[in-house]
Amino acid sequence: MMHTLGAGRAIFSPAGYVIHALGLGEYVDPTTASTTAFLDIATRTWSHEVCAAVGVDPERHLPTIAQGEVGTYKGIPIILAPGDAATTALGIGHEHVYMGTTGWYARITKDVTEHRPEKHTLALGKDEFLTIAAVQQAGAARDEALRLFPVDGPLPREKSGVVAIPAFSGGRFPRRVDRPGATFVGVTAQTTPAHLHKAILEGVCLALSFDIDSGAEATHAPLPVVGGCTRSREWMQILSDVTGRTVHVLPDFDAGTVGALRFAGVDVPTPQATEEFTPRHSYAEEKERFARFLSLM
């Protein structure tokens, strides 16, 4: 994303480049700035300590941190919205789960009590943060389940009885796993390939649940979910069971564009949920076992 303008000056996003090309200066929004490692997220200014360590003069080399209207071009207001992760969150609501090839849980909050290396914390607006807990695999783990344990028909309605840590390509959250390799615990003579297939889907949801539980702040509001994996009704039921939350599946829509328009003051509604799933089983015991086994990896 970074583009050098000459004389060592850089910008960090396509939006920043467009603004520069329009002759309005060099800008970067706080959310995108959060991903550069130069930002002091507490003050939302460039870190003098980091800049000094790498020989960067923020006044000469880095763009101005700003968002909102940065100027006009031929009478048209030019508005710099937050980065794509933030506009996606703004387009959906204060929290959501994305489940595609990868997966994450994102929420907007005014209070970040701790900065964890397993999570992304980005600046959003003047006094808000966007936190993202990303797992290495979601749909990719399902691909492995289909390859290893192909299922002809529906998955078992009951819990799998197996705790799976689906770190086929390593893991990010709730604990970083650098060495690839999935783990299955609790396999018995009664375990079938369908149970192992379901255990992988449960494992993805269990990993996400460690932030959903803390991030929900005791709310019982429905949990919005987007992404290609929402087409699996069985998986959405598992997500509802594991998190103990009602899951609302949202239709395909460009959440980032909706969020950018909202940021610009345009009233664009979030689409209504197409399906709803409510909890049927408790996974409290499986979550405890998942955490215990993950700590050994």
What is the compact description of this entry?
The protein is α+β, with helices and mostly antiparallel strands. The chain is built from 10 helices and 17 strands. Helix 5 packs across helix 9 and helix 7 packs across helix 8.
**Number of extended strands:** 17
- Low-pLDDT windows of residues: none
Oligomer: single chain
> Any idea of the CATH class of the largest domain?
Alpha Beta
Pfam families: FGGY_C (PF02782)
InterPro entries: ATPase_NBD, Carb_kinase_FGGY_CS, FGGY_C, FGGY_Carb_Kinase
Protein name: Carbohydrate kinase FGGY C-terminal domain-containing protein
GO molecular function, one term: phosphotransferase activity, alcohol group as acceptor
Summarize the topology:
Blueprint: E1 3-6, E2 9-11, H1 14-21, E3 27-28, H2 30-34, E4 39-40, E5 45-46, H3 48-54, H4 58-61, E6 64-65, E7 68-73, E8 76-80, H5 84-92, E9 95-99, E10 103-109, E11 120-124, E12 128-135, H6 139-148, E13 163-165, E14 183-185, H7 193-215, E15 223-226, H8 233-243, E16 247-249, H9 255-263, E17 275-277, H10 284-294
Parallel strand pairs: 3-6, 9-15, 15-16
Antiparallel strand pairs: 1-2, 4-5, 7-8, 9-10, 10-12, 11-12, 13-14, 16-17
